[in-house]
Amino acid sequence: MYNKNQRDRNIIRTCVTVTNAECGGNAEKMVRRFIKKVKRDGVVEEFRQRTHFTKPTVIRAEKKRAKKRLIQKVNKKREELFSLKSPHTKRRR
What is the reported pLDDT for 80? Predict the structure, then answer.
Protein backbone atom coordinates (compact mmCIF):
# COMPACT_ATOMS: atom_id res chain seq x y z
CA MET A 1 0.00 0.00 0.00
CA TYR A 2 1.08 3.58 -0.55
CA ASN A 3 2.60 5.16 2.55
CA LYS A 4 1.24 8.61 3.46
CA ASN A 5 4.68 9.89 4.52
CA GLN A 6 6.13 8.85 1.19
CA ARG A 7 3.34 10.63 -0.70
CA ASP A 8 3.80 13.86 1.28
CA ARG A 9 7.54 13.82 0.71
CA ASN A 10 7.09 14.42 -3.05
CA ILE A 11 5.20 17.71 -2.64
CA ILE A 12 7.04 20.83 -3.80
CA ARG A 13 6.98 23.17 -0.80
CA THR A 14 8.36 26.36 -2.29
CA CYS A 15 6.33 29.51 -2.63
CA VAL A 16 7.61 32.23 -4.95
CA THR A 17 5.95 35.62 -4.67
CA VAL A 18 6.63 38.98 -6.25
CA THR A 19 4.93 42.04 -4.80
CA ASN A 20 3.83 45.20 -6.53
CA ALA A 21 5.94 47.33 -4.17
CA GLU A 22 9.05 45.31 -5.05
CA CYS A 23 8.90 46.33 -8.69
CA GLY A 24 7.32 49.76 -8.47
CA GLY A 25 4.15 48.70 -10.30
CA ASN A 26 5.94 47.68 -13.50
CA ALA A 27 4.31 44.45 -14.77
CA GLU A 28 7.20 43.46 -17.06
CA LYS A 29 9.68 43.88 -14.23
CA MET A 30 7.46 41.73 -12.00
CA VAL A 31 7.44 38.91 -14.57
CA ARG A 32 11.22 39.06 -15.01
CA ARG A 33 11.77 39.03 -11.25
CA PHE A 34 9.37 36.10 -10.84
CA ILE A 35 11.21 34.10 -13.51
CA LYS A 36 14.56 34.80 -11.82
CA LYS A 37 13.22 33.69 -8.43
CA VAL A 38 11.75 30.49 -9.88
CA LYS A 39 15.05 29.65 -11.61
CA ARG A 40 17.03 30.36 -8.44
CA ASP A 41 14.75 28.11 -6.36
CA GLY A 42 14.94 25.36 -9.00
CA VAL A 43 11.18 24.84 -9.27
CA VAL A 44 11.09 24.31 -13.05
CA GLU A 45 14.11 21.99 -12.99
CA GLU A 46 12.58 19.91 -10.21
CA PHE A 47 9.28 19.70 -12.09
CA ARG A 48 11.04 18.50 -15.24
CA GLN A 49 12.91 15.86 -13.24
CA ARG A 50 9.70 14.61 -11.66
CA THR A 51 7.81 14.25 -14.95
CA HIS A 52 9.75 11.06 -15.81
CA PHE A 53 11.12 8.34 -13.57
CA THR A 54 14.89 8.18 -13.36
CA LYS A 55 16.58 5.04 -12.13
CA PRO A 56 18.63 5.42 -8.94
CA THR A 57 21.71 4.10 -10.75
CA VAL A 58 21.38 6.86 -13.36
CA ILE A 59 21.05 9.49 -10.62
CA ARG A 60 24.17 8.18 -8.89
CA ALA A 61 26.10 8.12 -12.17
CA GLU A 62 25.10 11.74 -12.91
CA LYS A 63 26.20 12.84 -9.44
CA LYS A 64 29.50 11.03 -9.91
CA ARG A 65 30.08 12.72 -13.30
CA ALA A 66 29.20 16.12 -11.85
CA LYS A 67 31.63 15.58 -8.98
CA LYS A 68 34.36 14.56 -11.41
CA ARG A 69 33.76 17.67 -13.58
CA LEU A 70 33.91 19.90 -10.51
CA ILE A 71 37.20 18.35 -9.37
CA GLN A 72 38.68 18.80 -12.85
CA LYS A 73 37.54 22.43 -12.92
CA VAL A 74 39.07 23.16 -9.51
CA ASN A 75 42.31 21.41 -10.45
CA LYS A 76 42.52 23.38 -13.70
CA LYS A 77 42.07 26.70 -11.86
CA ARG A 78 44.59 25.63 -9.23
CA GLU A 79 47.07 24.70 -11.95
CA GLU A 80 46.62 28.11 -13.60
CA LEU A 81 47.17 29.91 -10.31
CA PHE A 82 50.26 28.02 -9.20
CA SER A 83 51.99 27.31 -12.49
CA LEU A 84 55.22 29.13 -13.26
CA LYS A 85 54.42 29.95 -16.86
CA SER A 86 51.83 32.55 -17.72
CA PRO A 87 48.77 31.16 -19.56
CA HIS A 88 48.44 34.32 -21.69
CA THR A 89 51.88 34.43 -23.26
CA LYS A 90 52.19 34.71 -27.03
CA ARG A 91 53.94 32.06 -29.05
CA ARG A 92 57.23 32.95 -30.68
CA ARG A 93 57.71 32.30 -34.37
Answer: 87
Question: What integer pLDDT is reported at residue 27 of this predicted model?
Answer: 85
CB 23 within 8 A of CB 30: yes
Give yes or no for residue 1 having a pLDDT over 50. no
Residue 63 to residues 3, 9, 36, 43, 80, Cα–Cα distance (Å): 28, 21, 25, 19, 26
- Count CB atoms within 10 A of the CB of residue 1: 3
The per-residue pLDDT of the chain, averaged, comes to 82
Quote the CA–CA distance of 14 and 12 in Å, as a whole number. 6
Domain ranges of the chain: 4-82
Looking at residue 42, the DSSP 8-state letter turns out to be T
Cα–chain center distance at 4: 29
* Cα separation, 54 vs 79, whole angstroms: 36
Element (H, E) at 48: helix 43-51
